[in-house]
């Protein structure tokens, strides 16, 4: 399986500061098939727009959907985007995070409007509250286990200059951007979440694994790096979390 970005994607803005480079974010948002802000993520997006020149921010596309239990968004911001014509969906269920519920609403929206997306990219931050970081990882797993999205749609989590996604059991080929290969501090990681991954074999890493087991309390492959190859190949027996640095996301 090749993990390469597609032109058909949805972007979700979670309730964390947007640290990505401005030019990247403008282009990324405008070219998305669907644009969704999740609760306080609407406020974060509004704050991002205020950093842009007014003639540019006024031309930016509005969110297609604003979802959440609305305990983080201000009433002023919510009403502002309602007046602009944004669809607003209140999701008060406290058994799931706003991120998880937003994926359900995204899928409903796609089915209702016959929209197809190949990738969903959620923009957040892997810093701050550890429980929220783990909650975001939990959502990655729920999307797979509970089929929250179309079976062919892949979910990614973008945090600062890193990109994370799940690798299901099987063989994977990941294309490594040249900027990442040449960056002297580019890192990557393979982390088992919730269960042991009994067998992992890799190529293209600085410290490759050869039919090794990954398990908390034993070996976990964090702070790994790349050997300069165009691709990284991974074969895993169980689902693992792959993360990697993409320097251009923050303009490095």
List descriptors.
about 250 residues; alpha/beta; Rossmann fold; Jelly Rolls; 2 domains; ten-stranded mixed β-sheet; five-stranded mixed β-sheet; 7 helices; 15 strands; globular
What does it look like?
The protein has 252 residues and is of the alpha/beta class. It has two domains: 9-160, Thiamin pyrophosphokinase, catalytic domain (Rossmann fold, 3-Layer(aba) Sandwich), CATH 3.40.50.10240; 164-245, Sandwich (Jelly Rolls), CATH 2.60.120.320. Helices cover 27% and strands 30% of the residues. The protein has helices at residues 22-30, 41-50, 54-57, 75-83, 98-113, 130-145, 178-182; strands at residues 2-3, 9-13, 34-38, 65-68, 87-90, 119-124, 154-159, 162-167, 170-175, 188-192, 197-203, 212-214, 221-224, 231-236, 240-245. The strands form two sheets. Strands 5-4-3-2-6-7-8-15-10-13 form a ten-stranded mixed beta sheet. A hairpin with a 2-residue loop joins β7 (154-159) and β8 (162-167). Residues 1-6 have low confidence and may be disordered.
